[in-house]
User: Fold this.
Amino acid sequence: MFQSSFTNSSISGGWWNDRSAQPSLRTPLKSKHGSTMNNNSLGIAGAMRMTMKGASFERFRMDVSSVNIANSHTIRMNGKDPYRRLIVAGKSTGNGPEATKLEQDKRPFIAKYDPGNPHADENGNVFYSNANPLEEAIEMISARSAHQANIQAFKGLEKMYEDALSIKK
Assistant:
């Protein structure tokens, strides 16, 4: 039998029954970053929702990186600017991450000297997108790792839920 250092072996007593040691469901919980967790996020089901929101957010980051890579070699043509890299702006909420908006990267376009190119300007420069495929590949690896971590956390929570349901059997 497992003996916790916090309790005696009696199920009826111990720190888990001490109301002063448990968080109040009426008081919102504060994370170490200052965000407030609402009461809907408590428990296994709330944690499962948070991990799925996290996985969805990371999937969105991967989608945006894919679009950035696909358009990274566009050039200024016929007076129209090349593709401008998109950045996912997000925030952390008590219920998981949330994408707030897509912003255009304000960095300048990449100028390459190519006077023979029909799309070169009067100085012989061709302007390419400010999306860097290497930077996007790194962003995609980061998003994929975070996505996988959220999926693994969800699977762990799902197993805990199944185990809790099987206690009655």
The first strand starts at residue 29 and ends at 30. Residues 1-29 have pLDDT under 50 and may be disordered.
